[in-house]
Amino acid sequence: MLFFSSNEQIDMPKTSGIPKSILADISKLKSKLATLEKSHNTLFKDFKTTIKSHTEMLKKQQNTIAQQESTIAQLGKKSVKKEKRKPSEYNLFLKGKMTQGMSMIDAVKAWKEKDSSSSTGSSTRQTGQDWQSPTQQY
């Protein structure tokens, strides 16, 4: 090999000037740094997934709240309750008899007896304000 040859291979610098203990410390630090970077990356990924899941949960809660608010608004706009249906004469009769202490079966029998004796082909339904008569209580 010639002294100034262009084919000369370049070797790694000799480490004879740097003590081996320092080189060992540097390699230990490099491995610790790699371990720390790896754990940092893992923690960062976990943090990102946690943020993502929390964001999704927050969106779901906001949607739920919005639905509840719209439901509340709709309930506030609902019309006034309809009036109760007028109780039939039959129901009022049964209720009156049962409040007097009669059993349901006896009250139905009494209605049938009343109906058969009073009806001569007329309907059992009555029109007008008979259902509000003051003598019948409910």
Nearest-integer average pLDDT: 80
The backbone outline, from C-alpha atoms, is rod-shaped
Tell me the distance between the termini. Answer: 126 Å
- Number of individual domains: 2
Largest β sheet strand count, sense and barrel closure: none
Uncertain parts? none
**Element-level helix/strand string:** HHH
Strand tally, please? 0
Beta-strand residue percentage: under 5%
Describe this structure in words.
With 138 residues, the chain is an all-alpha fold. It has 2 domains: 18-76; 86-119 and 133-138, no CATH class. Helices cover 61% and strands 0% of the residues. The chain has 3 helices and no strands. The chain has helices at residues 20-77, 89-99, 104-118. Helix 2 packs across helix 3 (104-118). The radius of gyration is 48 Å and the shape is rod-shaped. The protein starts with 19 loop residues before the first helix and ends in a 20-residue tail after the last helix. The model has no long low-confidence stretch (mean pLDDT 80).
